[in-house]
Design a protein that fits this description.
The chain is elongated and about 65 Å long. It folds into two domains: 62 residues, Phospho-2-dehydro-3-deoxyheptonate aldolase, domain 1 (Alpha-Beta Plaits, 2-Layer Sandwich); 250 residues, TIM Barrel (Alpha-Beta Barrel), CATH 3.20.20.70. By secondary structure, the chain is of the alpha/beta class. The chain has an eight-stranded parallel beta barrel with strand order 7-8-9-10-11-12-13-14, surrounded by seven helices. A four-stranded antiparallel sheet has the order 2-3-1-4, covered by helices on one side. Strands 5-6 form a two-stranded antiparallel ribbon. Helix 3 runs parallel beside helix 4, helix 6 crosses helix 7 and helix 10 runs parallel beside helix 11. The protein binds phosphoenolpyruvate (PEP) and manganese (II) ion. The site of phosphoenolpyruvate has 10 residues, from loops.
Length: 337
């Protein structure tokens, strides 16, 4: 349930509500709305205490939330959450481009990618150092050495950085180097990892699982937010269907659906969705037109030589063209880039 406080509620009255919740074995999460505080209360037996809370001073109303996800739901917070990553703000009027290679392969490669995506207008540099590969014989990533190269490229260009973490040890190492942590499709339901991400103090990019429903995806976000971290960006990267022409099927309808159900911002990743560089542009346009807050795009200085995901990676020149096109698409839906 959500406890909506009166405009005039004092900090003592808010504290009293939290105290009452604690007494009843519930946990209160304070959410600052545009002009008032609301308290999200999660735990068992919440219905029993609603009546007691409603009569406390400073409380305007108590609203039950029927959906299984609570803190990430629109009912808990009507205003969109803004996620800050370096200088970038995701979830506002501006469309944010995050771009870079699938994997960090060398200092030179990530630096070159960083310079080129920055020139094209990206705000966030991506690069994997721990790669969750289907085959154990494929390139697994440079690990800490890769993180150092990513951080150096970010610093040199002024770009914020994002990298994927695959388990608790990699999260611990990565959080010292990057501005944002990515939880990939394969780990979307790694609940211990989600909780650790919630305690990491970093913004989290949470990709949709390979076969996850929107509800399961939002429940994964709930794991992060229930640890006190609301800096979560969702990322639609395609789901598994019977179709084999594309690597995955980009579920564009998830964009308006998620926006209705949750206050969290959302990126579209047309690279992993299509798996083919020449289809990235059309789906990027569609993603922004559908209402996404930005794009996650794989860009490699030399896609033909990439150690992972070369076929879906754009050249820096192609990315630059795409970014130009996105300006027009963004404008046509009342956004800017
Ligand atoms: C990636 O971003 O490189 C990646 C592995 O993505 P996903 O988890 O969506 O497959
Ligand atoms: Mn990739």
């Amino acid at each position: 349930m959500v406890i909506v406080m009166k405009l005039s509620a004092s900090s003592e009255e808010i504290a009293a509500v939290n105290e009452e919740l604690k007494c009843c074995g519930l946990e209160g999460h304070l959410i600052q709305g545009v002009n008032r505080f609301v308290i999200g209360a999660v735990g068992e037996r919440r219905d029993l205490v609603a009546q007691r809370l409603e009569v406390l001073p400073g409380v305007e109303k108590v609203v039950p939330i029927m959906r299984p996800f609570k803190l990430v739901s629109r009912e808990a917070q009507e205003a969109p959450t803004l996620v800050r990553v370096g200088d970038a703000v995701i979830g506002g009027r501006d469309i944010v481009l995050a771009a870079g290679p699938c994997a960090v392969e060398s200092k030179e490669q990530i630096y070159e990618a960083a310079v080129r995506v920055k020139q094209a207008g990206a705000k966030i540099l991506r690069g994997g150092a721990y790669k969750p590969r289907t085959s154990p014989y494929s390139f697994q990533g440079l690990e800490e050495e890769g993180l150092k190269a990513l951080a150096a490229a970010g610093e040199a260009t002024g770009l914020a950085t994002v990298t994927e973490v695959v388990d608790l040890p990699s999260l611990d190492v990565a959080k010292a180097y990057v501005d944002m942590l990515q939880i990939g499709a394969r780990n979307m339901q790694n609940f211990r990892l989600l909780q650790a991400a919630g305690r990491s103090g970093k913004p989290i990019l949470l990709k949709r699982g390979l076969s996850a429903t929107i509800e399961e995806w939002l429940m994964a976000a709930e794991y992060i937010m229930s640890e006190g971290n609301n800096q979560i960006v969702l990322c639609e990267r395609g789901i598994r269907t019977f179709e084999t022409a594309t690597r995955n099927t980009l579920d564009l309808s998830a964009v308006p659906v998620v926006k209705e159900m949750s206050h969290l911002p959302l990126l579209v990743d047309p690279s992993h969705a299509t798996g083919v560089a020449r289809w990235v542009g059309p789906m990027a346009r569609a993603g922004i037109a559908a209402g996404a807050d930005g794009l996650l795009i794989e860009v490699h200085p030399e896609p033909a030589k990439a150690l992972s995901d070369g076929p879906q990676s754009l050249t820096p020149t192609a990315f630059s063209r795409l970014a130009e096109e996105m300006k027009k698409v963004a404008e046509s839906v009342g956004r800017s880039l």
